[in-house]
Please model this.
Amino acid sequence: MQNLLQRDLGSSLLSLAVILGWLGLFFVLLRIFTISLKRILEVIFKK
Model:
């Protein structure tokens, strides 16, 4: 914890923003994948 406080605040915030950005991108892609999978399965099992 002490090491984190000694680092530059700007670089810490930048690292946090990058991590949150990648997590957000991952969840958006996961959501798109699940919606498309649901539609594909609905088309397959509708017959």
In short: The CA atoms of residues 33 and 42 lie 14 Å apart.
